[in-house]
Structure formats: structure tokens, C-alpha cells
Amino acid sequence: MAFSGKATVAAAVMAAAVLMLFAGEASALTCGQVDSTLAPCVGYATGREKMLSQRCCGGVRSLNSLARSTPDRKVACECLKTLARGIKSIDMGKVSGVPGKCGVSVPFPIAFSTDCAKVH
């Protein structure tokens, strides 16, 4: 019985070690954060506003700083696509140019065709 207890403890320790290894790969970013940081950009993306606002660019910079890890960038990519699909009259041409106009370099194209699984 003692051997069985040691084996159980060893298995639990190994499982915890594996979980700790993968915990660093988990995304901390949520779609709620993506949506709220980019909300000031919706007017521009739909043509209701002719100019990018300071608040929009601030949100883009904030999102860029939040999405530093590969899992976070993948989540941001998926959330951006979901957000864009839910906005009527969105101009993806305008949307794709927003990061550059705000002085932010995004490591993936902002487009419906982007494969978020391949984002690094």
C-alpha cells in the first residue's frame, strides 16, 4: 500500500509539473478586453467618423502591449475577426490600416482571411 501512495504522489507531482510548463502558454487576454480597447475605433471602421481618434490609437497601442505572447496574439486575432464580423458596415480596408496609422506594428494581417492558428 505504501508503494501505491508514493506512486500516486509521484504522478501528482509530474502532473503539476506538466501543468506548470503549459501554464506559461495560456492566454491572459480576453475578447472582452479586445472589444473594450477597440470600441473607440468602431466609428472610424464604419465610416461614421472620418478621422482616427486619439482614443482609438490609444486602444490599439494598449491592445498591442497586452498581446505580447503567442497565445495572446492568437486570441487577439480571433477576437478581432469575431468583433469585425459583428459590426454592420465595417470597412476592412480601413480596419487593416488602423495599426499603421496609429504607429503600431501588428505581427499579422488584419483580415477575415487571416488564419489565427498560424499567428506567432
From TrEMBL:
GO terms for molecular function: lipid binding. Keywords: Lipid-binding, Signal, Transport. CDD domains: nsLTP1. Transmembrane segments: none annotated. The keyword Transport applies. Residues 1-28 form the signal peptide. One of its GO terms (biological process) is lipid transport. InterPro entries: Bifun_inhib/LTP/seed_sf, Bifunc_inhib/LTP/seed_store, Plant_nsLTP. Residues 31-116 form the Bifunctional inhibitor/plant lipid transfer protein/seed storage helical domain. SUPFAM superfamilies: Bifunctional inhibitor/lipid-transfer protein/seed storage 2S albumin. Belongs to the plant LTP family. PANTHER family: NON-SPECIFIC LIPID-TRANSFER PROTEIN 2-RELATED. Plant non-specific lipid-transfer proteins transfer phospholipids as well as galactolipids across membranes. May play a role in wax or cutin deposition in the cell walls of expanding epidermal cells and certain secretory tissues. This is Non-specific lipid-transfer protein. It comes from Lolium multiflorum.
